[in-house]
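User: Predict the structure for this protein chain, please.
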Amino acid sequence: MTRAGSAPAEHRERAAALVRRAGAPLALAVLLVVGTAAFGDGFASARNAGNIALDSSYLVLIAVGMTFVIISGGIDLSVGSVFALAGVLTAYGAQWGSVAAVALPLVVCGLIGLANGLLVGRARMAPFIVTLAALLFARGLAFAASQEGNRVHLIPADLALTRIGQARVLGVGAPVLVALVVFAIGLVVLNRTRFGQAVYAIGGSSEGAELMGLPVARVKASVYVLSALLAAVAGILVAAQTSSGLPTIGEGRELEAIAAVVIGGTLLTGGAGTLVGTLVGVLLLKVVQNVINQIGTLDAYYQQLASGVFLLVVVLVQAGLARRRTGGGRGVPT
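Assistant: Here is the predicted structure, written as structure tokens:
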């Protein structure tokens, strides 16, 4: 009787894992086919693919860090503001050269991430509250650094950082290459190192991880530092490409990153998820936005509407799968 009863449960577990892993790739494949059929070369051209890749690269960098945070059982609402702050500090530091333009945002944003991590990991404060405060602090600092938003710092066109940010290799923009390298490193760290396994273990059960002797507070602090640094790298690249630092950029980028991570199959409760799924989630969101732009007659706000619908559907599916696994429990908290 035990074997007979466990067989359906095992099948449901496998089906749930399949839906979580294959749902986003399948939706992306369908969308690519529909977009190509509907818009032809305007959608399937190399130029449009390059635009999608470039637009996705900044979100990939932010979403990689967000994946580590969410798998560990946390959340980081500050990445959009950190992204903007890094751009402003890059442009501000460019007056002293490329080294200062890169070092200044990395140090400042890294310290913000460290503060988040220490408050969450050691003080055991709620990640939502801590990173919401960091969101406000980083955005305010970005406006203060640009003299209350009235001054846009420009980066000289002959600066090495600008040339790197605007460079193209084999037709691919430098930010895309940086995002691919970071993604590859993230894959190795998350799947092949003790740190990555600790992230999964802590997200599955923080108390259990402590009983196993894992450095829970240190790992939690590390993922928030990583998240802030990757958001800073994205901000540096945007500033280098546009030759300017704007304190208003990145508004809502943290929600977009969370949506991409969750759509890619990472559970909001932590303990499960993949960077490959996050990459697919980013591409899915950006392709949806590109299709809406191809239509032309739809308002840009439909991009946010589509992203919200995708996120809601994924969370509802995750909640339903969790209730099945727990026999009708509370599901996935949102």
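Residues 329-334 have pLDDT under 50 and may be disordered.
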